[in-house]
Structure formats: C-alpha cells, structure tokens
C-alpha cells in the first residue's frame, strides 16, 4: 500500500513551480506538439497582426517625437513554440515595406527559460531570413532571476542602461505560468495562503506531467502582517485590496512585476508591455475569489493578475490600455511605462482598431463557433473568415473537406480567391513539432479546381517532404497534372511510382496503356 506525503509551502515556493520549469526544460518545443500546451489562441496570425500594428504605431510615434535613429528592441518572454514571433516579424516587415516611411530599425529578441528552445529557434528554417537581415536574435532568460540578455547570434550582452529607445516587451501566456504569491483578504487583514501538497511517496520517479496530474492541493491561511508594512514594495496595491475586497483570494504577481522592473532597467527610457493571457485587470474580478485551481495541459497555468501589474506601474506614472468590455478567453492589454505615455497616438489608435473594436478574444469566440458549424458554411463565408484570420493554415486544414464539397458549385472568382489565399498562407506558414502536410492539402484543393500547374507545385513539395508517407493518390494527381501540362516523361515517371505502390491500380494502368499507344 502506498502512503501519501503531505507538506506545507508558501504558494510561490511550492515544488509545483520547479516541476513546471522541469517540464519545459525537458520537452523544449515538443511541449506544444499536438497542442498539449495550448498555443493557437496566443500565436495565430490574427493576434500577431494586431501586435505588429501596435509595434508599427509605436515606431511611427518615436519618429514623430524626433527620436527615431536608435534601434528599438522587442523582447518576447517565454516565446515557446516560436510561432508568434514568426508571424509578428513577418507582418511587421510587410507593414514597413508597404508604408515606405522613415522608421527606427528594430530587433526582435526571442527568449525562453529552456535553452533547447533557444537553439531550436536558431536553426529553424523560417527564421533564417530574419537572422540574415539582423532583425532577430535569441537569448535564454529566466524571468525569476535574470537581469541581462545574452544574445546568441550577435554574441553581445544587453545590460542596465544600454538601450536608448524604450524596450518593447511581449508577454503572451507568460504571467499565468510563472510563480505567484497567494494572499487572502478577510476582515480588512492580509493573510498568506499556504498550500499543502499531497502526493505519492514515489513522486520523484514521475515525469512532470504525471506528477502534476497526481497531486492535490489544500489551502490554509496564515496571518501575514509583512504585506501591510510600509516597506513592502507594493503596499499601495495591497491597501487597495484591503479597502475594497472581502473574503477574497488574490494571486499576486510579485515575480512578474519584479521581472518587468529588471527589464525596465535595461532601457534609459522605459518600456511598452504588450501582453495577452487569462488575466483579470478589473478589481471586481477578484471579489470573493475562491482559491485557485490549476489548469493542467501537460504543464499548468493560473489566472494572471493584470490589475496588480497595471496598478503598480500606474502609480509610477504609466498608462494602461485594456478592453472596456469583459473578455471571454483572452485579455489583451498594453502598459506604457514611458515619459508622457499618452503622447503615443499611433500606438493607441492601433490598440483601438486591433484590440478594442474587434480583437483576438472576439476572433477566438468566432473561431469556436466556426469549428462547430464549418459543415454548414458556404464558400464565401469560409473565405471571409479565412481572410479575417490572416489566411491561417490551421483553419485551412480543418476546412479542406468542406471546401472540396463546395467546389463543384463555385465560380471562377471564388477559385481565384482560393488560389490567392493558398499562396499567402504558404508564404507565412510556420512549421512546428506538430507537423501538417499543408502542401498536400493545398495541392489537392488546387487539383480539384483544375489548376494543374499550381497543384503540381504543392504536391511535389509534399512528395519531397513526406518521402516515407506518400500515398498513391498523390502520384496519380501528379501524373494527371503532368499529362495536362504536356509533361509526358514526368507523367510516366509518376505513373510508374504509383504502380510500384499499387500494381493493380486501374486508372494508372489505363494511363500507362494510353501513353504506350501514343
């Protein structure tokens, strides 16, 4: 019989945070394979385009202030699978080239706790053009302890005061996954909420995901007058909670705030934070809050306390933008810890356009509806939503069956829009551990539209990249494409490959006979 062990910890010092670190360090980019750790909601092309618009607006504002010559550094914390960084850079470069106006140069720095991730990004084919242009670098960064950025490509180190432009910090699904304190407000007093963790005595032999799945949490309050002392650095925020909250458990992001304060020291002129998370920025959201429950997805996450982060920096003169309406799945905000923070009209207008009026949260809500109703949608509706999502590959993949069903009734204009969408999608596709044969899906849709030259291009990419898993249908379609394009030798070669897989394939035998009779 196995005995369970039970130990008491401060919440921010509980071993679950070490298990969290170990999970990401061991798995690297594989943590996002098959969406074990969710990434779509904060990494899709639509949210990346919104971020690029805000960054572009900020660059315009810096030029308009007459402070545009020094480079602007953009640091992404916990860049994970790398998909967000790729889409932001891709869109930002397009905005730069399309506008053709004078802007300060920029450098995007992807960071993560796991060095495996850093090295995987450095070698990823999608990033090579940005590295070559000097737009992208990488650094291992521990948000709880580190205070400098050691860049992998350039070999330079960014230290306190090195940056003359404000630092742009991107933090998606970040604050909900690093250590947080847990306090309780009751009768106007502050308590530390300690956690008892009960687990098997054999927990050391478990993998991190197994360990998290097996333990249980129990909470107990302990009077904590230190939070009420004037020497506590965030005393003003705690006072606000004492005044307005009752019987409330509050996740307090002391580690996250300290991380932002250390990064702030790198620049002589402050920072702009662009962030998205399951995070509450309204004080009312913390009223009568129950003790937190971990959301498990291989690792775990909690709710981020944007109210505390916002309040701390507002008291230092910062301005903040968060949606005036309640969010459903993801809260996207900006904090301007800058001199005269409201003197950034292009950035604020970009937030209004891309977040406040219709943003990533609204898009994801629509996406949930589309996922359930794709089989009832028409081709124009599919094309419209695909365009709204900036020609996202994942949406195309899940839509190909419905598109195929609708093609017999489609017109030439719709087919041309499909072709254009496929080409735009392919130009910005980011390959992850969770691989899709996107070229195959694109090639087959184009084949059904009788666009043989385009179909051949994508199907041949599929054959090259999936050599061990080519199905007979691909060779048959390629043979037809080549036949229609009068590439007889290529057509015969693909028929022979098809017959090697299926010697009795009737259509292939008929085609072979046709060629032999010519």
Automatic annotation (TrEMBL):
Positions of TPR repeats: 472-505
The keyword Ribonucleoprotein belongs to this UniProt entry's keyword annotation: no
Top-level taxon: Bacteria
SMART domains listed in its UniProt record: TPR (SM00028)
The organism of origin for this protein: Cohnella candidum
Name of the featured protein: Tetratricopeptide repeat protein
Keyword Magnesium in record: no
Keywords: TPR repeat
InterPro entries assigned to the protein according to its UniProt record, in alphabetical order: NDUFAF7_sf, SAM-dependent_MTases_sf, TPR-like_helical_dom_sf, TPR_rpt
């Amino acid at each position: 019989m196995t005995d369970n062990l039970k130990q008491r910890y401060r919440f921010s010092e509980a071993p679950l945070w070490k298990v969290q670190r170990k999970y990401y360090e061991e798995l690297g980019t594989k943590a996002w394979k098959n969406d074990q750790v969710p990434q779509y909601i904060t990494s899709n092309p639509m949210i990346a385009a919104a971020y690029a618009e805000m960054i572009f607006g900020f660059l315009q504002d810096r030029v308009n202030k007459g402070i545009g010559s020094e480079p602007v550094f953009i640091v992404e914390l916990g860049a994970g699978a790398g998909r967000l960084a790729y889409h932001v850079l891709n869109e930002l470069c397009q905005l730069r080239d399309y506008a053709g106006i004078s802007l300060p140069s920029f450098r995007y720095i992807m960071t993560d706790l796991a060095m495996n991730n850093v090295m995987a990004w450095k070698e990823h084919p999608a990033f090579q053009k940005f590295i070559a242009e000097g737009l992208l670098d990488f650094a291992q960064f521990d948000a709880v302890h580190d205070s400098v950025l050691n860049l992998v490509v350039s070999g330079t180190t960014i230290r306190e005061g090195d940056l003359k432009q404000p630092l742009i910090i991107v933090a998606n699904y970040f604050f909900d996954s690093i250590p947080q304190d847990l306090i309780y407000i009751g009768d106007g007093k502050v308590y530390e909420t300690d956690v008892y963790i009960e687990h098997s005595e054999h927990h050391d032999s478990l993998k991190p995901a197994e360990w998290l799945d097996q333990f249980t949490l129990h909470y107990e309050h302990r009077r904590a007058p230190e939070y009420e002392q004037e020497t506590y650095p965030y005393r003003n925020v705690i006072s606000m909670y004492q005044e307005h909250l009752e019987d409330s458990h509050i996740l307090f992001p002391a580690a996250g705030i300290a991380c932002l304060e250390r990064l702030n020291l790198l620049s002589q002129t402050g920072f702009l934070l662009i962030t998205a998370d399951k995070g509450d920025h309204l004080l009312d959201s913390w009223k009568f809050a129950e003790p937190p429950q971990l959301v498990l997805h291989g690792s775990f996450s909690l709710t981020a306390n944007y109210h505390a982060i916002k309040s701390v920096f507002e008291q230092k003169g910062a301005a903040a933008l968060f949606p005036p309406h309640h969010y459903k799945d993801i809260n996207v905000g900006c904090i301007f810890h800058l001199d005269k923070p409201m003197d950034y009209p292009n950035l604020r207008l970009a937030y209004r356009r891309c977040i406040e009026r219709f943003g990533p949260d609204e898009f994801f809500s629509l996406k949930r509806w589309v996922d359930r109703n794709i089989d009832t949608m028409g081709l124009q509706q599919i094309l419209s939503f695909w365009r709204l999502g900036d020609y996202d590959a994942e949406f195309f993949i899940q839509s190909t069956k419905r598109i195929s069903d609708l093609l017999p009734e489609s017109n030439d204009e719709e087919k041309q829009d499909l072709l254009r969408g496929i080409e735009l999608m392919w130009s910005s596709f980011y390959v992850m551990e969770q691989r899709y044969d996107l070229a195959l899906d694109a090639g087959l849709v184009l084949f059904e539209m009788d666009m043989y030259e385009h179909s051949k291009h994508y199907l041949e990419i599929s054959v090259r990249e999936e050599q061990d898993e080519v199905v007979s249908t691909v060779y048959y379609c390629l043979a037809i494409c080549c036949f229609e394009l009068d590439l007889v030798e290529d057509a015969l070669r693909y028929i022979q490959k098809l017959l090697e897989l299926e010697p009795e394939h009737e259509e292939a035998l008929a085609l072979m006979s046709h060629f032999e009779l010519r």
